[in-house]
Amino acid sequence: MGAATDALPKPMLPLGGKPILEYQLEWLKASGITEVFMCLGYKAEAVSDYFSDGKRWGLKLRYQIEKTPRGTAGAVRDLASRLGDDALIVYGDLYVKMNCKKFLNFHASHSGAASLVLIESDHPADSDLARLDKDRITGFYRAQPGRPYANLACAAVWAVRRPLLDLIPTDKPSDFGRETFPLALAKGMALMGYRTKEILADLGTPERLEAFMRRHPLLQGGGR
Hints:
Elements (H helix, E strand, L loop, with lengths): L13 E2 L2 E2 H11 L4 E6 L3 H8 L8 E6 L5 H7 L8 E5 L3 E4 L2 H9 L5 E6 L9 E5 L2 E6 L11 E9 H4 L10 H11 L4 E5 L3 E4 L3 H10 L9
Parallel strand pairs: 3-4, 7-11
Antiparallel strand pairs: 1-2, 5-10, 6-12, 7-10, 8-9
């Protein structure tokens, strides 16, 4: 996001008059979630000062602030002792409007190590794509010019179980998409893909944020 994040971390950038992250908390609350852990690093105080203990949103908020960069998976691994056997993980720069309960029911229906939400991406060339055999993920790849691909992108919303968290190293940074999930497949763990056409928008670049606003003009005025 360049200069836009000089003062704020990406999840706190405004969308329709309030931070992107606030829409996430409202979605989680409406989905029946009551406790949320926020894994923070860059300008963590901008998040904790704004959301405090979460009572305003009817949530119990807890904060895990990294001292050195831990990566998407490493940050969650640091929380392992505070989590139950299953955890719902959502990246902070997403706008999500999907049926969370339906997704969690899908996760409960199998015994795999994780469930990954998969969508048709509007930027597949720079997305992590998944190969599927029915609902089971068999591999991950990036689209290559001139080569066919199935546009099923990992949407950075997933439910994971303890055996997957145990794969994440505690002594170095680690990323779910680049390291943890491929390692799980290599070890024969089952990763299941949950396909949906609901709204899961990656707002992590200026171009994607602008395109999203064009598609959803009501949000420009703070509408729902």
